[in-house]
Write a structure and sequence with these properties.
This protein is α+β, with helices and mostly antiparallel strands and 137 residues long. The chain has 2 helices and 5 strands. It has 2 domains: 58 residues, no CATH class; 52 residues, OB fold (Dihydrolipoamide Acetyltransferase, E2P) (Beta Barrel). Helices cover 36% and strands 24% of the residues. The chain has a 5-stranded mixed β-barrel with strand order 1-2-3-5-4.
């Protein structure tokens, strides 16, 4: 069983508190307008807390300040050209379609060829043609 990092758990909890307090405030304000039973209010608060407890294993790691900065990086990934790059076009990397631009603007890359991502400029991938002998990732 994986050990829980207390500092990440504390950070996660502190980020959840403002929303919980706002939810409680809204519930108690609604309780005055609409006669909501006390038991229902506490049940809803319990559900809100349970939601945060259930989500922690899935999103808790993103509260780690030491999370690798390139975890989601596209650099180094291999894609397939879906719209010819001359020098701009579309490339599919894994199951996603991206705008792409060749690093060498004088050469174009045909549909179906493999390219390797060498950089990112906004939402555009900067790619170069992959040599057939290179390993795939």
């Amino acid at each position: 069983m994986k050990r829980v990092n207390r500092s990440i758990l504390l950070r996660y909890t502190l980020f959840q508190l403002p929303a919980l307090f706002l939810f409680i405030l809204i519930l108690f304000m609604l309780r005055r307008v609409i006669k909501i039973p006390d038991l229902a209010v506490w049940f809803l608060i319990g559900c809100w807390v349970a939601k945060d407890v259930i989500l922690y294993p899935f999103v808790g790691r993103f509260y780690d300040p030491n999370l690798r900065k390139n975890w989601f990086s596209m650099v180094g990934k291999v894609g397939t050209v879906k719209e010819a790059l001359s020098p701009r076009g579309k490339v599919q990397v894994k199951s996603e379609l991206w705008r792409a631009e060749t690093l060498d603007r004088t050469h174009w890359v045909a549909v179906g060829e493999k390219v390797r991502v060498r950089g990112v400029a906004g939402l555009t991938l900067l790619v170069e043609r992959q040599d057939p002998g290179q390993t795939k990732t």
